[in-house]
Amino acid sequence: MRQLIAMTVGAMGLLVASAPAIANNFYAEGMAKAKAEDWPAALDLLEQAVTADPNNLRVGTDYRQAVIAAGEYDRCLEFLGKVVADHPEAPNALLNLGFAHVDKIPVEGAITQVILANTALEKFSAALELEETWLLRYTRGNSYLYWPAIFGRTQFGIDDLQRAIDMAKELDSMPYHGRAWAALGDGYWRLEDPAKALATYKEGLALYPDNAELKQRAELDETELTTFLEALFDTNVRVATHLAEIWEAHHANGAR
Amino acid sequence: MLRSNLRRAAVGAICLTSWLASQAVADNRQAAIENTPEPKPESWFEDRTVAAGVAAPHRTRSFKNPYAHIMEGYTALGASAAAADVDGDGFEDVFFTDSSENGKNRLYRNNGDFTFTDVAEEAGLADGNDAANASANSLWFDADNDGDPDLLVVRFGQNLFYENRSEGGEIRFVEVSEKAGLSRYLNCIVAIAFDYDLDTDLDLFLGNYFQPVNLFDPETPRFFPESFETATNGGGATVFRNDGPGEDGIVRFTDVTQAIGIDISGWTLDLGHADADHDGDDDLYVAADFGTDSLFRNNGDGTFTDVSEDAIGIDTKKGMNVDWGDFDGDGLFDIFVTNITDEYMKEGNFMWQNLGELTFTDVGRETGTHSTGWGWAGKFFDFDNDGWLDLYTVNGWVSQSKNPQDNYVLDIFEVIVNPEIDLADARNWPPMGNKTLSGYQRNALFQNQGGTLFKDVGARHGLDTELDARGVALADFDNDGRIDLFVTNSGQPPYLWRNVQPTGRHWLQLVPQGKTSNRDAVGTRVWVHAGDHTSVSFVNGGNGFASQSTRRVHFGLGSEAKIDRVEVAWPSGKTQTFKDIQPDRIYYLVEGAKQLRPFGPQAPVASSQEAK
């Protein structure tokens, strides 16, 4: 089991310290520029960091957060598209490219939102074909849930999330693993089974009693849940793709 | 005709007075409404469609060209209604369009007892559909300022313009499109009329959906929208300036579109005008399908400037309707635009709150009016006479199979996510067949809750019907001070809803008549002060999708039984104030006249306090 954990964490590229030194330098400088809100410089430096270490999830993620702040979505899509083309073996580059499509959704019209969301799913699937991780299963599963039930994708999402839950049983328990339970319940709500959704939240809460998403949902009645989830799945609301929970959890566990 | 600074100042003073008054009394107005006894929970509307004799259905067009199976899914339009007092008998009549080949358009003459008689054949107005043209809409407007409404029948194909030559109780129209210069092939879907250049006659603003290709026998398959969000290969808009009658007495129109600065090429679905900045001339909102809506500021010199980016921003939605009204009581005209909101696409309607200085913010979500479905017409009106503008929106595209798998969204999705597809090519769009797209959606009657929020009471009043409605013509068909509705449904019979609301709240209606201004007085703004209550409205020249409402100006007064004064700003620049007016009556409002003239047999006469 320990081997699986190490493999998963390593593949996610969480350990910036293990990345090439040149990437670390660019990353540190880029983050400093981002902190100073010098976005042109920040993006240039962070792109160099990603180029030097394309499968590093954290570098790519922080680059995308700078992109969001700068509103340079098209630049990001073009850049990460090239990174993926140059490094087709890097699942986290694909994951970041998928997230980059998600990041752009709120600033686009309804039809382009559909195209972006569909492309994001394609990238997540491609990443999963390279490597199966809890994060990729959760991410793709959760993404399916944004599609209205008429598109027939909800069950795909439920299958992914169930798989993520099963994978978590083989990993060191992390608070963010509770997210898969929350999303699984959301999937049942999408299938118009709010009772099963609420039961799923409570089941997940028993395993992850500190998970805020599960606590929030478990306290709602069916009507309140619908209101809550309709707002959650509003495509005009930005989806948080900063993965901060993951960094915090691994930092707390001394992974870094 | 250019306007003077003096006139601007006078108009501005009226506006400012009214605005300040309305700001100061908002709380009192709300209190007055809240103190009104709750009425019984019965519906306040009676379905009189059959009893009134207006139940003939609209029929959609079937095409015979190679793209017919695709086109029919995208042309389920043409069910429209336009209200006006055609014969001058004091009762509002209705022109109702059909779209089928050789289908007859109808002129429903109001018999005065809430029944109607179709007199289109005798009037010469029935033949609006043939193999090369399909009726899509219509507009009444007094083009020649002779005191009776002329008619434009808006068509996919070439429009028809009829001059009203009724005499001695006989309704008679003569088709003069070619002589008037209005016979061009346009694929028009909407027309409004207002006097943009303030030269005392009504000019025509036409919105065109498709480019001017022959839809009935197209030479190319590339006549569909090139994009779902930024299409600019539509028909745009065409503006015809009214140049007055020629030697034969027939009004001549000249295309001035480019010259006056209306430069758009999108898929126009609706146009709406109002004086957004109270500077004495009317501005223009363009609602576009598959792309960006536009707001044009009237520069006051016969030209317009596109101020969209600063005023409303750039959108990618599917604008379908434009109506203007002061829903929040701040003295400025706001705009309601329908878009598409469904499970698969949540655009949300726009409720553009006018913030002044030609800036707007969308408060659709905040007011509770953003999510109605696949929206079509949405009209402001005060159905309960409480002094706040309510809103009726009709929704739904095509209601066919109820099998969930027969949802056309699944077909169109395959097109949407394929970037290689040439959308402009009609052959690349999947046929709709018997499938449903945003069907069986209910109409909504939004009751204004005090200027900040609307509550849907459609079900409570039975107006939440789910036919594929398109247009809403509002008029007081029985002159009882309660606004009735004529609702058109695509491929189905219309609804005629009689307003029987029992609150006993007070009201005022004015039938405007320009003298120096255009005879229809389109663009005239009216402020009514009653107690702590000030409302503003204007004479509109056909705003709202697939429907033209009454030209009259209607005010609900709530519990105010006394009207303190009525202020009027005419398009000519003339302003007038009338005092001591009895409520619950209809008056003729004639430009320059010292009194409001009672309408019909009613007695009271209000005295003019000033005429400038």
Please describe what this structure looks like.
The complex is a heterodimer of chains A (256) and B (612). Chain A is mostly helical. Chain A is 71% helix and 0% strand. Chain A is built from 14 helices and no strands. In chain A, helix 8 (134-144) packs antiparallel against helix 9, helix 9 packs antiparallel against helix 10 and helix 10 runs antiparallel to helix 11. The longest helix of chain A is centred in the middle third of the chain and has 21 residues, at 110-130. Chain A is globular. Chain A starts with a helix and ends with a helix. Chain B has 612 residues and is mainly beta. Chain B has a nine-stranded mixed sheet. Chain B has a five-stranded mixed sheet with strand order 5-4-3-2-34. In chain B, strands 1-30-29-28 form a four-stranded antiparallel sheet. In chain B, strand 36 and strand 37 form a beta hairpin. Chain B is globular, with a radius of gyration of 23 Å. The chains are: A mainly alpha (256), B mainly beta (612).
- DSSP strand count of chain B: 40
Q: Decide which structural class fits the backbone of chain A.
A: mainly alpha
Beta-strand residue fraction of chain A: under 5%
**Helix proportion of chain A:** over 70%
